[in-house]
Design goal:
This protein is mainly alpha-helical. It has helices at about 5-20, 30-55, 60, 65-80. The protein has one domain. Helix content is about 70%, strand content about 0%.
Amino acid sequence: MAVLSDADRAKVRDDWMAENTNSLGAMTKAELRAAINAIDDWVDTNAAAFNLTIPLPARTALSTKQKAWLFYFVVRRRFEVS
């Protein structure tokens, strides 16, 4: 899967800012965008390694979208605030 388009990366920034008001601190919108770009690039670079981490049969039974959702749920749980 390719990296997000410029418009999609801007949408991520806008969505994040809408949910995290007053959370930028001294960081600028451009710096936040650079972080989003780096994370998206990292996801693209490491997609194959992530897929190989998933044990069989889940690796072959789950779709790419299902694997992404599973990753999202695990990360969300790890960082949820009680």
